[in-house]
Specification:
alpha/beta, 4-stranded parallel beta sheet, 4 strands, 14% strand
Length: 159
């Protein structure tokens, strides 16, 4: 990185399940590792603008003592200029992001899973708590993999 502060936007479809959990987990993991970072999240759709995260997203973060507070919003053109990295939860959202990305974008737009195993984060919305549990643990692994690649390997992985 060019001395610019690390700033990340985590993106899913509606911004009430995966991306708010990802935002909360990435912020928490970075703090535990002593990394200065700005993290936000957004959705590619406008389905839930202004809504709090899904109750199950909040419950899973509370279970692991990870603070979560967010009002859903849609990705804006300025996000591509404000953030250094935009991380998509899955291929469909990655395609949507690349479709709306302005020509003067400075953010690196990637599938979040590309930092680890190229796996998408499955949408847990229509399932039960187990799906949210899996999303949480995947976000922990992806947060560490992302920070390892962008900032450098850590001597303390956060689980």
């Amino acid at each position: 990185m060019s001395g610019e502060k690390l700033s990340v936007l985590v993106v899913c479809l509606g911004n009430i399940c995966r991306s708010p959990v990802g935002e909360a987990v990435l912020r928490h993991v970075a703090k535990e590792r002593g990394i200065d970072i700005t993290v936000d999240s957004a959705g590619t759709s406008n389905y839930h603008i202004g809504e709090d995260p899904d109750d199950r997203s909040v419950a899973i973060c509370r279970k692991y003592k990870v603070p979560i507070k967010h009002a859903a919003r849609q990705v804006q053109a300025d996000d591509f200029r404000r953030f250094t990295h935009i991380l998509a939860a899955d291929e469909a959202n990655l395609r949507n992001l690349n479709r709306v990305k302005p020509r003067d974008a400075k953010a690196e737009v990637r599938l979040w899973g590309s930092y680890l195993d190229n796996a998408p984060i499955p949408d847990p919305y229509y399932g039960g708590m187990n799906g949210f549990e899996e999303v949480y643990h995947q976000c922990v692994k992806l947060s560490n993999a992302f920070l390892d690649e962008v900032v450098g390997k850590s001597t303390q992985g956060v689980e």
